[in-house]
Amino acid sequence: MSDFRASNGVAVSRDQDGRVRTTFSSIRSDIVPSRAAALAEFFEHDKDESFGRWRAPRPLREFVVYPGSDFDTALVLHEPSGAMTTIARQEVDDAEAEGFSDEAKVARQYFIEADKTRRWQDSVEGELWALRFGVDPEEIVVVRRGDHFAAVDTNEYFTSVGVTAPEITGGRRVWPEVQA
Length: 180
What we know:
Elements: E1 4-5, E2 11-14, E3 20-24, E4 27-31, H1 33-50, E5 54-55, E6 63-67, E7 73-78, E8 83-88, H2 102-116, E9 128-133, E10 140-145, E11 148-155, E12 158-162, E13 168-175
Antiparallel strand pairs: 1-2, 2-3, 3-4, 5-6, 6-7, 7-8, 9-10, 9-13, 10-11, 11-12
């Protein structure tokens, strides 16, 4: 890897042993290869979350999935080639079967993981949630009222939505705070 200088002035390089070396002014830090790989994956995950996408686990990490406009479609992107494929949930019910494309396998895994993460559907009356819709990274704070979420702030574009609405693509509970 050639030397790289980040926008904050920190120089980053890799030595012959695979250590990542950072230098700022005269202060140098070394990061062993296993930790450098973990940090790279962490920052990749952080970037993926900011883009509202899901990344396939190894060995198919070069694929990312953007949620469709409902929970039943996914846009699968192969990052190295830029090839994109839209896959419907019903197409990949048996994606573990031999002969399915890598894209179909990735889409199937995405649907399995997405189903596990719709925690807002289990919310209770009065809880506050920050929800995302479609691929828009902006969150809207809502309160659970019966079988729907109502906007906390007046918003000319949003007043309420059903708890199981397919337009909801992400969310986190704001109050009461989640206890570790």
